[in-house]
Design brief:
Elements: H1 3-31, H2 44-53, H3 60-72, H4 88-123, H5 128-142, H6 145-159, H7 175-201, H8 204-211, H9 216-228, H10 230-253, H11 259-269, H12 272-300
């Protein structure tokens, strides 16, 4: 399939997926009993007035039509409770860059350490270095992020007193959140890279390259490494999703004013518009990242056919 046709097809599929995600989120919110203003310290007349103001007194399908029309125009509505009458797009513009910065740093951390460690483990297969890396990477995958966050705070903030425990007051404030968020993907990439590298080193073209007298460095890092990166690129899409969803816990623990913290607060406050807006935004962002990763396959390995 031609690359441009493939991209167009994937874009249309992405738009449809976003539509489905928005529809499911909308009706799930409507299934929640009560009103966003039911917990307000106001009488029934005031609550009814608020429902009429935001159109929540209309039939569900009429609300759905209005919601879709607003969505098509890039309008995600306004916050009902957390930041009353503030557009959801404004909240996202203010908070998402913070989440994206921490998530981006966590991805760089995971790739910068995971790929080399995976290569070392594959090249030292069966030796002490391989065993240590495999044990540590397994532990990193098994331990939940909130446990890593709590343990790192106890060690580096309370006992050693060298790193702050909350907020983003300076460069040192990013170390613990980035480490906590990036540890799991780093360990997963390490194991994935090890398996992929071992598979590449066992291929016929590697044996041919060695028979031609090429140095082990060229064979490993020019030929084997390039093909070994394809599974890593495949994982980049889910990795972006993990750093965003996993970031919710990290932002809550370290009191970081990112989109994840707003999402959790929106659920607690039953701010339906904010929940729906952030869900649609994150779904669109993740779908976009997956599309970019699919296109990168072709750039890394031209033999891959874009026929799906």
């Amino acid at each position: 399939m031609d690359t441009s046709k493939y991209i167009l097809k994937r874009v249309m599929m992405a738009i449809f997926t976003i539509f489905v995600a928005a529809t499911i989120t909308f009706f799930l919110m409507k299934l929640v009993p009560g009103s966003p203003f039911a917990t307000e310290k106001t009488n029934e007349i005031a609550q009814q007035a608020l429902n009429e103001k935001y159109g929540l007194d209309k039939p569900v399908f009429e609300q759905y039509k209005i919601y879709l029309n607003q969505l098509l125009h890039g309008d995600l509505g306004v916050s009902y409770k957390l930041q009353k009458n503030v557009p959801i797009t404004t909240i996202i513009k203010q908070s998402f860059p913070i989440s994206a910065k921490i998530g981006g740093m966590a991805i760089i951390f995971a790739l910068a350490f995971g790929i080399p460690l995976g290569c070392i483990s594959a090249l030292k297969r069966g030796k002490l270095a391989d065993s240590i890396i495999r044990v540590l990477s397994t532990l990193g995958i098994a331990v939940p992020s909130f446990v890593v966050a709590t343990a790192s705070m106890l060690i580096f903030s309370i006992e050693l007193k060298i790193l702050p425990t909350y907020g983003l007051s300076g460069p040192s404030s990013y170390i613990l959140p980035v480490f906590t968020l990036g540890l799991y993907p780093m360990c997963y990439i390490t194991r994935l890279m090890r398996s992929s590298m071992l598979d590449s080193l066992g291929q016929d073209y590697i044996r041919t390259a060695r028979a031609k007298g090429m140095s082990e460095f060229v064979v490993t890092f020019k030929h084997a490494l390039k093909n070994s990166l394809i599974p890593i690129i495949t994982y980049l899409g889910p990795l972006v999703a993990f750093t965003l969803v996993g970031g919710f816990v990290v932002e809550k623990v370290f009191n970081i004013p990112g989109l994840g913290r707003y999402f959790i607060k929106a659920i607690d406050a039953r701010d339906y518009n904010l929940i729906m807006g952030t869900t649609v935004f994150l779904a669109a962002f993740i779908i976009l990242m997956n599309l970019v990763c699919d296109i990168l396959y072709k750039l890394v390995d031209p033999r891959i056919k874009l026929d799906e």
